[in-house]
């Protein structure tokens, strides 16, 4: 049925639907007719997901979209003056998105590993029932006639079947759930050092040649003050004063940055 004809007839059938008693054969007939007349909305919504249906049975997607259509029909009130399609499409696409979220993989995984995951799931269920506990990798491998490496590979691949948003709340030990983004990761101990070196670099560039040379010999080559003094022809005391003065200037510069 053309969309224009479906819209016109749907208005009539919705008015009739609201006047009929729940559970009567006549009401069921009108409801089924509305579903059939508006299946084009499901087809329209499914086309928007055609790039995400790799490996997914399109009939399953259509059936899922039809569930959304039925929900929209049951909730639509023609007295509000809205177009049915305005209500129906969000319900249909919402059901389809939920289907993809619950049944597809969060990351691309080869079909071989997808099938291996299902095989492992069935094997794990059978062995858990027989052993009254979770089976080991070795037991799964023997039961499914696989190598232990294949079992491990399948278990790792199964982790790609779902993902969580960084906004998903985690359960902390203190019963204070926080978004995953706040609890994942850790402070990088090298970050503070990097920031210090980044601040220090332009200060070193402004030092006099002899000051930079003494710093390089003392901290880069790990020479003693006596060795530096001997190399430069000055006393150890002079080297000490130059180092103290230079380090004080660098410290003041970093604190002011």
From TrEMBL:
<dbReference type="InterPro" id="IPR014322">
    <property type="entry name" value="RNA_pol_sigma-B/F/G"/>
</dbReference>
<dbReference type="InterPro" id="IPR007630">
    <property type="entry name" value="RNA_pol_sigma70_r4"/>
</dbReference>
<dbReference type="InterPro" id="IPR036388">
    <property type="entry name" value="WH-like_DNA-bd_sf"/>
</dbReference>
<feature type="region of interest" description="Disordered">
    <location>
        <begin position="162"/>
        <end position="181"/>
    </location>
</feature>
<dbReference type="Pfam" id="PF04539">
    <property type="entry name" value="Sigma70_r3"/>
</dbReference>
<keyword id="KW-0805">Transcription regulation</keyword>
<dbReference type="GO" id="GO:0016987">
    <property type="term" value="F:sigma factor activity"/>
</dbReference>
<dbReference type="InterPro" id="IPR000943">
    <property type="entry name" value="RNA_pol_sigma70"/>
</dbReference>
<keyword id="KW-0238">DNA-binding</keyword>
<dbReference type="Pfam" id="PF04545">
    <property type="entry name" value="Sigma70_r4"/>
</dbReference>
<dbReference type="GO" id="GO:0006352">
    <property type="term" value="P:DNA-templated transcription initiation"/>
</dbReference>
<dbReference type="InterPro" id="IPR007624">
    <property type="entry name" value="RNA_pol_sigma70_r3"/>
</dbReference>
<feature type="domain" description="RNA polymerase sigma-70">
    <location>
        <begin position="60"/>
        <end position="73"/>
    </location>
</feature>
<dbReference type="GO" id="GO:0003677">
    <property type="term" value="F:DNA binding"/>
</dbReference>
<keyword id="KW-0731">Sigma factor</keyword>
<keyword id="KW-0804">Transcription</keyword>
<dbReference type="InterPro" id="IPR007627">
    <property type="entry name" value="RNA_pol_sigma70_r2"/>
</dbReference>
<dbReference type="InterPro" id="IPR014284">
    <property type="entry name" value="RNA_pol_sigma-70_dom"/>
</dbReference>
<dbReference type="InterPro" id="IPR013324">
    <property type="entry name" value="RNA_pol_sigma_r3/r4-like"/>
</dbReference>
<dbReference type="InterPro" id="IPR013325">
    <property type="entry name" value="RNA_pol_sigma_r2"/>
</dbReference>
<protein>
    <submittedName>
        <fullName>SigB/SigF/SigG family RNA polymerase sigma factor</fullName>
    </submittedName>
</protein>
<dbReference type="Pfam" id="PF04542">
    <property type="entry name" value="Sigma70_r2"/>
</dbReference>
């Amino acid at each position: 049925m053309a969309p224009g004809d479906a819209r016109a007839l749907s208005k009539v059938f919705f008015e009739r639907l609201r006047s009929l008693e729940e559970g009567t054969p006549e009401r069921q007939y009108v409801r089924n007719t509305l579903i059939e007349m508006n299946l084009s909305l499901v087809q329209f919504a499914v086309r928007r997901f055609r790039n995400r249906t790799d490996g997914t049975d399109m009939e399953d997607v259509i059936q899922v979209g039809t569930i959304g259509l039925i929900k929209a029909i049951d909730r639509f009130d023609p007295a509000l003056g809205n177009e049915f399609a305005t209500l129906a499409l969000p319900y249909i696409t919402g059901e389809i998105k939920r289907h993809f979220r619950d049944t597809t993989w969060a990351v691309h995984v080869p079909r071989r590993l997808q099938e291996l995951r299902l095989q492992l799931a069935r094997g794990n269920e059978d062995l858990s029932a027989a052993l009254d506990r979770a089976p080991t990798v070795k037991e799964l491998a023997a039961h499914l006639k696989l190598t232990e490496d294949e079992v491990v590979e399948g278990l790792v691949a199964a982790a790609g079947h779902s993902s969580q948003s960084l906004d998903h709340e985690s359960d902390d030990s203190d019963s204070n759930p926080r978004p995953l983004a706040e609890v994942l990761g850790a402070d990088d101990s090298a970050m503070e050092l990097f920031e210090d070196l980044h601040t220090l670099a332009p200060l070193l560039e402004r030092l006099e040649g002899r000051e930079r040379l003494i710093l390089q010999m003392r901290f880069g080559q790990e020479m003693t003050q006596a060795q530096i003094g001997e190399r430069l022809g000055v006393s150890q005391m002079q080297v000490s004063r130059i180092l103290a003065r230079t380090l004080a200037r660098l410290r003041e510069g970093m604190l002011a940055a």
